[in-house]
Amino acid sequence: DQSESTYDLILSAIGISPNLALAKQAGLKINRGVVTNAYGQTSDPHIFAIGDCAEAHGLVLTYVAPIKQQAQAIAKSLLGNATTITYPPMPVVVKMPTFPLTLVPVRQVNPQGRWQIVQNDEDKGFIAGFYDENQVVQGFVLAGKATRLRNEWLRKMPQSIIT
Length: 163
Fold this sequence. Notes:
By secondary structure, the protein is an alpha+beta fold. The protein contains 3 helices and 8 strands; from the N terminus they run H-E-E-E-H-E-E-E-E-E-H. The chain has helices at about 20-25, 65-80, 150-155; strands at about 35, 55, 60, 90-95, 100-105, 115-120, 125-130, 135-145. A 5-stranded antiparallel beta sheet has the order 4-5-8-7-6, with no helix packed on it. The chain has a 3-stranded mixed beta sheet with strand order 1-2-3, with no helix packed on it. The protein is elongated. The mean pLDDT is about 90.
């Protein structure tokens, strides 16, 4: 079943630092970004925010992986199946031949824990992990040959990285 919808305005925002002027004009709640709920809705339930302009759980998630999660869930919600946005561990991969890098940023608003260097070896690469107070990995950095261990480190993390 396909249907058409007509909209007065569609906004496409591209960039790391959101321009919040239009959101202010619309009377939306803003902070560092346009504040959204678990469904991507703004303070006006008929307006959704996605990508660099959206602030979810107190965070502005500027990478491609979180934007994909937002787009998939919001699309389902717009089609009548209210779907919360989930944020699994999403690695950022920097593909440099001289020094490859993979990281999962700590996405807790007020993280409790500390970074620990797990490996610092010129031949095997560099590994650091952010461990919470229960010694659960909440983020990590892999550099050099250690980037091959990405899946192993992803398995160490909780299913949802935003709390």
